[in-house]
Write a structure and sequence with these properties.
Elements (H helix, E strand, L loop, with lengths): L14 E8 L2 E8 H7 L8 E2 L7 E5 L5 H8 L4 E6 L2 H8 L5 E3 L5 H4 L7 E7 L8 H9 L2 E12 L8 H12 L3 H12 L9 H12 L7 H8 L9 H10 L4 E4 L9 E7 L1
Bound molecules: S-adenosylmethionine.
Length: 271
């Protein structure tokens, strides 16, 4: 009986949660943008083992609407503490986890010294790249991991949308628009891959081709997520290796090594 049966987290363009069960063991798997847009869902090559979560004390740092909080709860975490700066994110997560706190992930050890070395599993998914100082954010979360335990990080990689000149052009256009309505209209424009004379001709031709062939468009919320954050860094692997050392981790295991045109690094760190 799959432990994860029936679990469905909110879907996003950039990554989608799927679950699988092998020999009674449940795993978390995620799919990444490039392949999802072109072919559907791509599972991680290696899973986050459920035993690093089940019965453990977990922190969801930058929980957003709480999808990973929900996953950790369903996997049997002993406790999940969910933190974010966004009030609406916390309101959403509070629907299923009362254990939420408004907190800046850049300052976890300063604001919560009792959390230093206190968590068995820290989920840090899609957050550091939205901050002004990704290393500071990483070290802050790293400080909360107990010796011998785990931190799961997802950051954008060089092979994905966030490293493309087109995305930067679209982000520039988005942020030049002054009203919410205009911005939302632009999100739809990007989502539908409409012709745009501000883009290079080859981009428009490619969009035309993708639309004619009926390629998957992702989701509107995914496009908004791509355009809206003020920061959306791409982090090279060498930098992540440096973070491992600075954060006091003995291991940084890449969970999607076989992905072609890798759009994100999914990394399980162990202290
Ligand atoms: C792209 S969302 C990812 C949310 C969630 N981890 C997920 O995968 O669904 C980034 C989240 O990080 C939060 N965030 C960004 N900077 C933060 C900070 N300095 N402190 C706490 N939360 C932050 C945002 O409010 C947002 O909810």
């Amino acid at each position: 009986m799959p432990v994860m049966a029936g679990l469905l987290a909110p879907r996003r363009t950039s990554n989608t949660l799927t679950t699988a069960s092998t020999n009674g063991r449940a795993f978390i798997r995620m799919a990444s943008t490039t392949s999802m847009i072109l072919r559907g869902v791509r599972k991680l090559d290696e899973s986050v083992p459920v035993e690093v979560i089940r019965g453990r004390r977990c922190l969801d740092a930058g929980c957003g609407m709480g999808r990973w909080t929900r996953v950790m709860q369903r996997l049997g975490a002993a406790e999940v503490v969910s933190v974010d700066v966004s009030k609406s994110a916390l309101e959403s997560t509070r629907r299923f986890n009362p254990n939420t706190q408004r907190c800046d992930v850049m300052k976890l050890p300063e604001v919560h010294p009792e959390w230093v070395g206190a968590f068995d599993f820290v989920n840090f998914w899609g957050v550091v790249m939205c901050t002004h100082d990704p290393l500071k954010a990483f070290l802050s979360a790293a400080a909360t991991v107990r010796d011998g335990d785990y931190l799961f990080l997802m950051v954008y990689a060089e092979g994905g949308l966030h490293h493309q000149p087109l995305t930067n052009l679209q982000r520039k256009i988005f942020h030049s628009l002054s009203s919410v309505e205009e911005r939302l209209r632009f999100v739809e424009h990007v989502f539908h891959r409409r012709w745009d004379w501000r883009y290079p001709l080859r981009v428009n031709l490619k969009n035309l081709y993708l639309n004619l062939r009926g390629f998957h468009k992702g989701t509107l919320v995914g496009v908004l997520d791509m355009l809206e954050p003020w920061y959306n860094w791409v982090i090279p692997w060498q930098i992540i290796e440096g973070w491992r050392e600075k954060g006091g981790f003995r291991e940084a295991r890449l969970l999607n090594p076989k992905e072609e045109r890798r759009c994100a690094y999914h990394v399980l760190f162990r202290k």
